[in-house]
What does this fold into?
Amino acid sequence: MSCKIALFSSGSGSNAENIINYFSESSDFQFHVIISNKFDAYVHRRAKKLQIPSFTFLREDFSDGEKILEFLKKIETDYIVLAGFLLKIPLKIINAYPKKIINIHPALLPKFGGKGMYGSRIHQAVAEAGEIESGITIHYVNEYYDEGNIIFQAKCPISVTDNAETIAEKVHALEYEHFPKVIENIWGNY
Ligand code: GAR
It folds into this structure.
């Protein structure tokens, strides 16, 4: 029996695509839906190409969570992966999926996390702070932004010649390399 995983993405969806491709031959993992909070997010185009159904829920649906939870239950979602998802997950959904929701954050938490810290803003802040390394953090999701238990981190060096764009490239490479494998490791014994 395969476990059914919903991917949440707010933007481009390159991580979602990478994960779906990684598991395309898997009989253990089925990425059966993509959920976004934006109608025009590029992830919908990727979903179409990958032949995965994708849906958009409104901001108000994400503040309460009831409608989304009902939907996830109806389609029998077992786990949730946040791959570039920028809204807070409602408590109702967190409580219904204990230790079954993970997020990827493009920095080394607890540094450069919290509300308003996402995407290129993070890489800009890392560059401005003169950090000598950055990386990725994969963690369980709780009711606070970026504060759930850490599952995995990987680092990349940063030099003085790096800027937000080059840091983003290094971090994306780490995401593509590790995120699918971490998913496989934590839920592989489903
Ligand atoms: C990724 O780098 C992900 O780590 C980050 O958004 C990017 C989405 O890229 N997530 C956050 O900042 C969450 N706080 P993608 O849409 O191409 O996968």
Remarks:
- The mean pLDDT is 96.
- The first helix runs from residue 14 to 22.
- The longest strand covers residues 29-36.
